Amino acid sequence: MPKATWNGATLADSNACVQLEGNQYFPADAIKREHFTDSSHTSICPWKGTAHYYNVVVNGQTNANAAWYYPNPKSAAEEIKGRVAFWKGVEVR
Q1: What does the alpha-carbon distance between residue 17 and residue 80 come to, in Å, rounded to a whole number?
Q2: 61: three-class secondary structure by DSSP
Q3: Calpha distance 62→53 (Å, rounded)
């Protein structure tokens, strides 16, 4: 089962992830909401659309924009709609 951890905390785990471009996209209900705060950061992927970000907060430390999701992906990436992926030192196994 894929599991995302950072700074000693489990951020998400699920058997229902979607793998895309080497990233595990976790279902929104699999993330531990207490470790996430909204970020105003966005980025654009030409084929997936606009990504929105979360800051990850664990034990008083913040990993800015370490999680992203596509609330309204383009049709080619519909399978990751609302799912959350990680980077910036978050370990996914």
Answers
A1: 9
A2: strand
A3: 13
pLDDT tens per residue, range 25-38: 999 999 999 999 99
pTM: 0.96
d(CA 37, CA 63): 10
Report the pLDDT value the prediction gives residue 80, as an integer from 0 to 100. 98
**81 contact partners, CB below 8 Å, separation of at least 6:** 70, 71, 72, 73
Report pLDDT for 70. 98
Residue reference for tokens 């951890």: 5
Of all residues in the chain, what percent carry a pLDDT higher than 70?
100
Measured CA to CA, the distance from residue 43 to residue 90 in angstroms comes to 19
* 3-92 CATH, one of 3.30.70.120, 3.90.1170.40, 2.170.150.40, 3.40.50.1370: 2.170.150.40
